[in-house]
């Protein structure tokens, strides 16, 4: 089974997307020590696709704006394992310096990446999605993990890699 990692700075909606893709099915909490300590993984389903999915989490999500060493290591470990990286940004907040830091991690890895502009529902959602072009990681896919919008476009974007 292919592995997909959801990465991005705190508060962009990674866990919301994880929960939506995994549903009630199998939301494993991974308690292994070290870099994997506070990440979660599960089996996702989207349309006809099934894949293993990793949510990069972290207690340091309580400290917005900082990218701790632990979060960086956890993100790098998840990217390493992934066949495809889902890189989330917040379409409402636009692109912040922390997003650039994560973009650099993905770029350096050379892994296939799909850029997702989350929180794109309703008015004002699209502005940040356009902003995300500046990351140089291709066309952002507008999405609302919370409202379940754009899931068909997400499926279309990830299908070639899985
Ligand atoms: P994470 O830190 O990247 O895992 O982000 P979370 O999944 O914990 O979400 C952070 C906040 O963004 C929460 O308050 C979510 O309810 C909210 N959120 C997640 N997805 C969406 C979305 O599609 N639209 C809006 N408006 N809010 C969202
Ligand atoms: Mg989270």
UniProtKB/TrEMBL annotation:
Residue span, EngA-type G domain: 2-162
Signal peptide coordinates: none
Binding positions (GTP 1): 8-15, 55-59, 118-121
Function noted in UniProt: GTPase that plays an essential role in the late steps of ribosome biogenesis.
Subunit: Associates with the 50S ribosomal subunit.
Similarity section: Belongs to the TRAFAC class TrmE-Era-EngA-EngB-Septin-like GTPase superfamily. EngA (Der) GTPase family.
Name of the featured protein: GTPase Der
Species whose genome carries this gene: Enterovirga aerilata
Complete-protein stretch covered: 1 to 162 of 449
């Amino acid at each position: 089974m292919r592995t997909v990692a959801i990465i991005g700075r705190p508060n962009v909606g990674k866990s919301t997307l994880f929960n939506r893709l995994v549903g009630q099915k199998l939301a494993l909490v991974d308690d292994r020590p070290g870099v994997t300590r506070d990440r979660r993984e599960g089996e996702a389903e989207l349309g006809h696709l099934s894949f293993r999915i990793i949510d990069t989490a972290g207690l340091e999500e309580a400290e917005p704006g900082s990218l701790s060493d632990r979060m960086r290591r956890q993100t790098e470990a998840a990217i390493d394992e992934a066949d495809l990286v889902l890189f989330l940004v917040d379409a409402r907040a636009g692109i912040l310096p922390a997003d650039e830091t994560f973009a650099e991690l993905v770029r350096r890895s050379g892994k296939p990446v799909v850029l997702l502009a989350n929180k794109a529902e309703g008015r004002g959602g699209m502005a940040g999605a356009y902003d995300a072009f500046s990351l140089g990681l291709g066309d952002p896919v507008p999405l609302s993990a919370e409202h379940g919008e754009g899931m068909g476009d997400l499926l279309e974007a990830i299908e070639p890699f899985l």
